Amino acid sequence: MEFLPLLQSIGGSDNPLLDSRLIVARALRRYQNAIQWIESELKPDTRIADTLQGLSDEGRMFLFRSGPLRSYVDRICSLLYSTVENDRQLANEWHGRLASIVIKASDESSGAKDETNRLSQIGFDISNPLSDPYPVVVSSWDPPVSNSWSESAELDALFNEYMALGVGVERCALRSMNSAQKQMIEKSIAFLFQLEPTAAYDVVLNVRHFCLFDYSRWPSMSDSDYREVGQSVSSHLVPNACFISGYSLAAFNRCAESIYHEALHKKLSNLFVTDSIVSDDFDTSVAPSFLSYWNKNTEWNSNLWGFDRALYAFHVYAHLFVFYGAAIETGQDEILGKQWSLNRHHVSRERADAIGSWLRQEGWDHLGESGRELVNVLSSTLHN
């Protein structure tokens, strides 16, 4: 089996279910269409659908890679589908927030010399880049520096709302990365580009922020103290952001796998936005669960996975099997560690095989047409 061509094919083959360039472009269009639908429902005084068209392609791409802005659109749509009294008024309020930001982003009279400066002035985080320049800039999270609206403050709020209580044995919070940790991510992204650029595109196109998370009481702890937290985590409720532990950032091989792993979750999240990954009548309450026998069951992290979590894991492990195969095949395992690479290569196939078999036996009726095609394509890489 030749793994480097396989890695190329699952990242840049012009297949709309595999190529992040195509996936992200479709996701951006879906969010723009969602805003048009929102405004057809709300009929607000301030409409932003036309304002968005006044931005450059790069400006629109930047805005819709921002996790907080996506979350605004998601929240408004959810409120409009709700039958709860007053939710429509809440949708109007959230639309007002979104409109305020988009209008400022398009205001050429603001005095900013260009679009990137204008976005920075209104609170978007462009000052801590880890990878490619605007608009495909991946930033590290740092605390907000003012009391006005900021992307970093909104991201912190999303983490606290949806994730803080579920990523470790005790409540967690975001904290700034130090320079060594930022350099570790930069080095990992550079390694992905060196191994196969399409693997790096999976990261830089699908991820807007990498964030360091820790126990909320971290200021009173030593960095060497043990933390019972996930090595890296993400949630579809916090779009385009990945959260990495200090443990993963302390070693290059762990960091490289973690950022690729979490970016693949974001890639699949974008596919959920654009394609029929699960069936039209999908219901989490009746969909089967998968027992991840390799994980310890804990109060904060069950090893009995819901259907969507199992599908996300299958997507990651199939990619990791090919990723490590390509590293071994090209001699890049010297950088990651030969034994580490060989072990992760075998483990990834074992786990992808287990979940893939379960999906076929137990979950096939719960997948949509695109979801079945995706499972078929990725399964074929395991035994090509």
Task: Please summarize what this structure is.
The protein has a domain at 1-15 and 275-384.
Give the overall shape, derived from the CA principal axes.
globular
- The pLDDT mean sits at 94
Low-confidence parts lasting 5 or more residues at pLDDT below 50? none
Query: Helicity level, as a percent range?
Result: 55-70%
Radius of gyration: 21 Å
Distance between the first and last residues' Cα: 7 Å
> What's the total helix number?
16
Q: How do the SSEs run, as a string of H and E?
A: HHHHHHHEHEHHEEEHHEEHHHH
Oligomer: single chain
Task: Quickly give the structural class.
Answer: alpha/beta
The total beta strand count reads: 7
Q: Which range does the strand content fall in?
A: 5-15%
Query: How would a textbook summarize the main sheet?
Result: 5 strands, mixed
